[in-house]
Amino acid sequence: MTLLLWGFDLTLILSLAWLGWRLLASADLFKAIVLFIVFGLLIALTWVRLGAPDVALAEAAIGAGLTGALLLTALRRMRHDDQPRAPMQRSSNNKERPS
Amino acid sequence: MTDTSATQTIPRPARLLVGLLTLLLAAALGWALWHLPGTAVGLAPEVSARLADSGVRNPVTAVLLNFRGYDTWLELAVLLLAVLGSWTLAHTTDVGPVEPVPGLLLSALLRLLLPLMVLVAGYLLWIGATAPGGAFQAGSVLAAAGVLILLAWPAAAERLPDSLLRGGLSLGLAGFFAVALGSLARTGYLLQYPTGWAGRLILLIEAAATLSIGLTLTALFVGGRPRRTERESSP
């Protein structure tokens, strides 16, 4: 392996370890979710370096993209639940896009 | 809203102990990895030997859809169970995005992005036979498109007819089932593709699975069974 690849792998590993610590230690949940998405993208890079491009494609789309969106939606619903109970405006009739 | 209250209630000695145990586990894993053989042999030679018979040229697709097709069939069943599980657990009245993302940027971007995403998904599905790609990758791109649609137009979850939603969710599993029954009738063995038909049947299964996976992941993002208003009767 060339020196460049060694350097790339080392940077990747250190970034993964540092990101993992930062997102677990983060007090702000939104920041933790954003770091998790970045973590997922770095994991996709790791899969490529391990010689598994199929898994990397799936990881980038599902692990980073879809799970990130799921976590953000869950965070929003958590915050709604924590706020004092107000009638939820579920007016989907007039929120449609005319498109 | 921050989460500092949770971290401050765990006493410091406990946190240090957990950190130490985690470091020990990491060290043990590193030691085990260090002593693995340098070049893993695995099953790659066997797969390459029979790759010509599998109907595709990508060894990953050959293993997923031909040699271990039964496992992929069960994976599709697991995805369907996940959606059913989320439907039973979530309330139907407060699911998914409630209001569309404000501003013009998202809808303008979607007009450009959505056709491209469908094209990329189709490409990934087609190229899965010879290069990295396949049903799960294409399905996840479709799911990303579905999530973007829901962010711009949250009512889409309720606009989709119930029959289409349920049909689409079970399409992957049903497609696999149909191919399995057909090959059972034709060759006498479950999922033994008839000679010469493997490539076409794999593409058929993958196409059905792509639609199904995209719809499943989008349904998981919605989080619950889409609410039907009383005046809308589902077809």
Q: Keywords for this structure?
A:
heterodimer; A: mainly alpha; disordered C terminus; B: 235 residues; mainly alpha
Structure in words:
The complex is a heterodimer of chains A (99) and B (235). By secondary structure, chain A is mainly alpha-helical. Chain A is 75% helix and 0% strand. Chain A has three helices and no strands. Chain A has helices at residues 3-25, 29-49, 53-82. Chain A is elongated, with a radius of gyration of 19 Å. The N and C termini of chain A lie far apart (54 Å). The model of chain A is unreliable at 88-99 (pLDDT under 50). Chain B is mainly alpha-helical and 235 residues long. Chain B has helices at 4-9, 12-34, 44-50, 59-67, 69-89, 105-127, 135-152, 156-159, 162-187, 198-222. Chain A binds chain B through residues 27-29, 53-54, 56-58, 61-62, 65-66, 69-70, 73, 77-79, 82, 88-90, 92-93, 95-97, 99, and chain B through 1-4, 7, 60, 93-94, 96-100, 107, 124, 132-134, 136-137, 140-141, 143-144, 147, 152-155, 158, 217, 220-221, 223, 229.
